[in-house]
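If you are new to this repository, start here. Below is one unmodified record pulled from the training split, so you can see the exact layout before writing a loader.
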Amino acid sequence: MARCFGVSADTVHSIYHQEITARILKRHHLLKQAGPAYAQRYLAGTDLLQLSFAADLPPCTVARVVVECLPLGISASRLTALLRQPSLLPSLASAQAWLHYWEGQQASHSEHQEAGTGEMASVVTGVPQPAQQLQQERDQQQVQVATGLANSSQQLQLPAAAAAALEAFLARVQQDIERCIECDICASPAADLARHTAGREYEAKLYQCLSDAGIAYWTEDDLRDKGFHKTPDAKLQELQPGVVADAVLLPHVGPAQVPIAVQGRIVNWIDSKATFGDDKTHREQALGQYQKYVNRFGPGLVIYWHGFIRDLSQLQGGEDVLLLDRFPLPQELLTLPRLPLTLGGHPGPDQRVREGCQEGVAAGPAEAQEAAVAVLGDVTVTAA
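And here is the target side for that same chain:
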């Protein structure tokens, strides 16, 4: 499919994941309502993968709902840990919940047997015969459970038959969960980790491209250290008059400079998205993130590394947010030249800051800052 449309495999996978995510959001409430019915089908022998095919949803999404409805007493808060490590299932299951279910099944089975025996006895004698032996067995099991609770307040002692049934059922559930994880490329913990890792890798790619282009920037972590809450992945730095910019003191950037222009548009910040930019996703991001960046920092650039639909730039606010599917090419970048200033025939503060910091960087960040302050003195550069 990627070759057919001339796009990368990552782009196809990103589009597919967005479609599946939209389907989950649309149908999840219906899945929750059908959870008990799916659990009954699972108890009757249908496996989790078959149920996920019937629901037309990712296996792990269906497994979460079904397992929560099974008579194992596993709460929703524990399902994430279970999907990450299915071998935890025996330690997460509740023996009390299983015993309640097992006793109900035994009682139902006994009622069916009693009904059948009563019908046969009524033909011979006309009087139904009670299943006294079955009742005695149930009473004995209750005594065993009570004895187990008296001996241990932490672990419920199940009857032998119930314990054997629980062990076999847990083995089946664990095997089905492992199969769901292997088959799910959208909602499994491994898929979530892969998307998170890809996001970090593309952020690192953005920082490397900025450094190679000689563009000074603050990372998202740098901005958070400065007290910003909602931040883009990269904020381009500005050298304000009379202020020594942090760019000369940070190892991952070059000399401080004003924001850049890309394709004739000013860019103050850049956000990296390791996804495909579709209409729905971009609208949500534009309202939730991009507009806040514009209000705080000015116009910026969003890079959808896996491409985007053409009409996104025409949406509201598109004049303030430039969209690309790659880092700008050298011929698309425009940086304002930094002219050396002179005061009375002596090197200006701009040049002296750079020279002083270059001397201090060899000793360390603290020495670089002292050198910058020393050469600046009380000189303040003002705009003409």
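Two things worth knowing about this chain: The chain has a mean pLDDT of 77. The radius of gyration is 33 Å.
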